[in-house]
From TrEMBL:
This is HdeD family acid-resistance protein. Pfam families: DUF308. The keyword Transmembrane helix applies. It comes from the Bacteria. It comes from Streptomyces thermoalcalitolerans. InterPro entries: Acid_resist_chaperone_HdeD, DUF308_memb. The chain crosses the membrane at residues 39-59, 65-87, 99-117, 123-145, 152-171, 183-201. Residues 1-24 are annotated as: Disordered. The lineage of its organism: Bacteria, Bacillati, Actinomycetota, Actinomycetes, Kitasatosporales. Keywords: Membrane, Transmembrane, Transmembrane helix.
Length: 223
């Protein structure tokens, strides 16, 4: 899940209307920071969660192998988005949990794509653990960032991720069809929350100057 990040550095270059920061081509970290601060990047991250959820719900009769591939690709792509958005926050103390979340998603995606682990129990354990831990990391980041915009929305996304993780881990899913519907439902809900965060961040960018605005945090969101 993607979550809005904390305040951008004052006195720096003013971002473009979509939230990107011009003149940051010299330093790779600055390039990633400018990209991760764009509301369109948050929007793409939301779509990366929403679209797999729709696919999974629309094709509940798909094989467990197909489900594992879809979920694995979702985790890998989300991990890439989280890695980029981690650099949109200047404070290294808040960057660390976001980078940990990105690594968590990537490792989980690799595990889902491994054929020996493509079982109902393995997928439930992997996805449930990722959602639970990433939700906790997102909540910690939101509470630690005093200047975060739309903190309530971010905390709501974190709570949804935690609940989703607990439900997937706690409920026995002996059927691949049951697991498919459960994961698809949570992916759609999480994707819709992230869409709300993306448009809320776009609205904040349009209403204020870059130096006075909190920058978005990622996927979690970002998480």
């Amino acid at each position: 899940m993607t979550e809005p990040r904390g305040s951008a550095a004052h006195g720096g270059p003013e971002p473009a209307p979509d939230g990107t920061t011009p003149g940051a081509a010299g330093d790779p970290a600055d390039v990633l920071a400018g990209l991760g601060s764009s509301w369109t990047w948050i929007l793409m991250s939301a779509l990366a969660t929403l679209i797999p959820g729709i696919i999974v719900l629309a094709w509940p009769g798909g094989t467990l192998h197909v489900l594992a591939v879809v979920i694995g690709l979702y985790l890998l792509v989300t991990g890439a988005f989280r890695f980029v958005t981690a650099f949109s926050r200047g404070e290294h103390g808040e960057r660390l949990p976001r980078l940990l979340g990105a690594v968590l998603f990537v490792l989980a995606g690799v595990l889902c794509l491994r054929h020996p682990l493509q079982t109902v129990a393995a997928l439930s354990l992997i996805v449930g653990t990722v959602w639970l831990l990433s939700g906790m990391l997102t909540a910690y980041t939101a509470l630690a960032a005093k200047d975060m915009t739309h903190r309530g929305l971010v905390l709501g996304a974190a709570a949804l991720g935690i609940v989703a993780g607990i439900v997937v881990l706690a409920l026995p899913t002996e059927s691949a069809v049951v697991l498919t519907r459960l994961l698809g439902l949570w992916l759609v809900l999480l994707g819709l929350i992230e869409l709300g965060i993306a448009f809320a961040w776009r609205s904040a960018l349009r209403k204020g100057r870059a130096g006075d605005l909190p920058g978005p945090t990622g996927p979690t969101a970002p998480v």
